[in-house]
Amino acid sequence: MKKILILVPGEPKRNMHSGWSGMVKDFVKTISKSDITVYSISSNPFNKKNINLKNFFKSQTNTIVERSSKFESLKRLIFAFFTNLPFQSVIFSPNYSWDLQYQKLYEESDIVIFITSRVSAYFKDNKKSSLFKHKKHLIFLVDPLHICYEYHAKQTNNIFLKLLFWRESKKLKLIENFNKEFDLITLVNKYDSNFLKTNSSTKIIEHPLMPYYSFKEKAIEKNDEILNFDKKRKIYLFGNFNYQPNIIGLVEFINFLSKSRINLEIFFKKNSLKIEVVGIISKKNKLLLNKILDNYKLNKFIFIKGPIKNFKDLKKDGLATISFVRTFYGRQTKEFDSLNLLLPILKFKNKKEGCKSFYELKPYFLKFSTVDGLIDHIKSLINKTNFIDLNKSIKKDLFTEVNRFNLFCEEILNLDK
């Protein structure tokens, strides 16, 4: 039986706010017959609540959670100024107080998987081991974060944030291009590999995402009816809104809508529609966003809902989701969560069209670059026949995705063959 060590940056939670959490949970569940250890490095030293990862993974997976002290975390952040590590990675870098335990786990493992570039400092340390060449090293990169910070550095007028984002972008770029000795790199959208420097021998594959629902082909064809369609009048925009780039992106979307030539309030009221912003958000950020909505007079149809207990509850009243992403150009984990709700995606059409994923060619990706274009797509979705057709198309692709995910897991387990 193969021993697999998985390093994760923080405490995984399965919801739409953390793409990598769901990826790890699904992966562990699918390869549960292997001997797996999940090594979680807590990102919150101020939270002393015990984390029961066994309940999260619902398996016999060995789980270890390490947490720095407040003093250690502060010291690391200060130390980050004098290193090549971005601030968001320094908290997850090797800590010598638990280094011996990690080294033992590393030595006993056959395959070591690093979840995102935030924990890749461990890989740099592992290279010093005499056992390095006898193990397989993978990184689930998800997406190149340096692109996101580079974009926001250009967009913000705040001098402090501009300097911070530029620094993060440059440091992340160094880390994300430090990948030539990985045996495998996975990206949610493989076309993002255009932004990475790799060896020709470095294998990069697209990371499939396991659907929440499984569908049989016959059931897909028979399901031509959507119950309570008249109640499906909510359009969702979700994410972690304590994450600064997501806050900036949401403010950009609000600003985008404010330039509309038509009266959006009348349109949304006439069709009983509303936009709900769903996700983790602090009281401070919620007050800030509500104030911005008030200033732009968009608060009659856009509402900051905040976190929810059950992600699947959004499916009942959902008509579509909005993906207003200007920093990446392919399929995102947020967008896959939209498909898991069986909802079409209203996707902002990025000016940089060089990177397209397979899924963006699908009919349920409804692209827009103007407010008028967005409204036209919403009008088409109010038509029940159109919605049913898109719903069926999503189900067919989710059916295919299950098979892709299982093959992906098999490929990882067979890396050393």
Which features would summarize this protein structure in a list?
417 residues, alpha/beta, Rossmann fold, 2 domains, seven-stranded parallel β-sheet, six-stranded parallel β-sheet, 13 strands
What is the ordering of alpha helices and beta strands? EHEHEHHHEHEHHEEHEHHEHEHEHEEHH
- Estimate percent helicity: 40-55%
Strand content: 15-25%
* Structure summary, number of beta strands: 13
Biggest beta sheet summary? 7 strands, parallel
The chain-level mean pLDDT equals: 80
Distance from first to last alpha carbon: 14 Å
What structural class should be given to the helix and strand makeup? Answer: alpha/beta
The gross shape turns out to be globular
| pLDDT < 50 runs, ≥5 residues | 352-356
CATH topology of the largest domain: Rossmann fold
CATH class of the largest domain: Alpha Beta
* Number of helices in the DSSP assignment: 16
Total count of domains: 2
In the CATH hierarchy, what is the architecture of the largest domain at level 2? 3-Layer(aba) Sandwich
Radius of gyration: 22 Å
Strand order of the largest sheet: 3-2-1-4-5-6-7
Element layout with pairings:
Layout (H helix, E strand, L loop, with lengths): L2 E6 L10 H12 L4 E7 L11 H5 L4 E5 L3 H10 L7 H4 L8 H10 L2 E5 L5 H6 L9 E7 L2 H11 L3 H18 L7 E4 L15 E4 L10 H6 L11 E5 L5 H15 L5 H7 L3 E5 L4 H14 L5 E5 L7 H4 E6 L9 H8 L4 E4 L16 E4 L2 H12 L1 H30 L4
